[in-house]
Amino acid sequence: MADSITGTIRYVQRDDSNDLSKKPYILHYAAPDGFPQNNFTIKPVHGIKIHNFRTSGATYEEGGIGIAPIDSNGMKPECFDDDDWVERVYLPELHRSVCAALGAKDMTIFDWMLRKRAPSFPVRKPGEDNGENHQPSLSAHIDYTTAELASRLPQYFGEDRDEILSRKYQVINIWKPLTGPCRDFPMAYLDPTTVNREKDLMTVDEVFPTVANEVFQVRWNPDHKWYYVPDQLDSEVAIFNAFDSEKGQSLAVPHCSFDLGDAAGSAIPRQSIEVRAFIFY
Q1: Spatial separation of the C-alpha atoms in residues 271 and 26, rounded to whole Å
Q2: What is the pLDDT of residue 209?
Q3: How many domains does the chain have?
Q4: Which family does it belong to (predicted)?
């Protein structure tokens, strides 16, 4: 298995024709007539070297990225269409897997999402089957800013917030394909130690009909070092950091999906599940 491949990563750019004094945003619903859907652009950067994480020697402790085994026996893709089954079977097994891998004492899950790639992706055809499902995210990003996480703590922990968060904790993402080996739009992870936090990260509001979330989109930097997990199995979960109570977001991992191109072969359209959680030590 090769130590690296070459791929395309999509990065954010500001459009100089827009008012650069206005905060970047993107609307996740149809914009009113005459109102821009967003005030920045995402452009592909070709020829990015993406390293084999399995042979890299990189560790979660030093770089915020890790892999853990999970018992996936009986976890057929169609099982994940049942929300009750996910809550009753998958999430408890994930809890055991991640706590064992990270040496954590407990985990509190606050969000999870299925993604099922439409055959036409990245172009969405109106009315096509699978049109309502979440699609792979192609632009390099971090799911939360520090301010966004702080604003959510009362929602997640209420009056117990201060007591619960007096412990060492991390906010993490956990990703796995529903079938493997995954060769269709696998995940790419940016080594956070190669990110210039002041220059490379752009704060963006993702605006939905009833809420706005603040995230980081990522600008291209030639110093960036990317990883992926070749042929990730459905019995493996990728764990990547979003926040650390002691280190802040210094190890928060930008990530996105990317196209393997001809190396994907005849891979079936990707189905995956991602989970977001607090880990306590």
Answers
A1: 25
A2: 85
A3: 1
A4: Belongs to the asaB hydroxylase/desaturase family.
Backbone angles phi, psi at 208, to 5 degrees: -110, 170
- In terms of residue numbers, what domain contains 97? 4-280
Answer for the pair 224, 273: CB distance below 8 angstroms, yes or no: no
224 CB-near residues (< 8 Å, 6+ apart) = 48, 190, 191, 194, 195, 200
Residues 100/106, Cβ–Cβ less than 8 Å: no
Average pLDDT score, the chain = 91
Q: Which of 178-192, 201-215, 252-266 has the highest mean pLDDT?
A: 178-192
Q: Where are the alpha helices (DSSP H) in the chain?
A: 60-63, 83-85, 91-102, 146-157, 161-164
Asked if residues 85 and 74 have their Cβ atoms less than 8 Å apart, the reply is no
* pLDDT tens string 84-95: 999 999 999 999
pLDDT band at 76 (very low <50, low <70, confident <90, very high): very high
Q: Please report, for the domain that includes residue 229, its CATH number.
A: 2.60.120
User: Which residues are CB-contacts of 52 (< 8 A; sequence separation ≥ 6)?
Assistant: 1, 2, 3, 4, 5, 227, 228, 230
122 has a pLDDT exceeding 90: no
N-to-C CA span, the chain? 35
Burial class for 180, CB neighbours closer than 10 Å (0-12, 13-18, 19+) = middle
Task: Specify the pairing of strand 40-52 against strand 236-244.
Answer: unpaired
pLDDT tens digit sequence for 166-190: 999 999 999 999 998 999 999 999 9
Instruction: Tell me 61's DSSP state.
Output: H
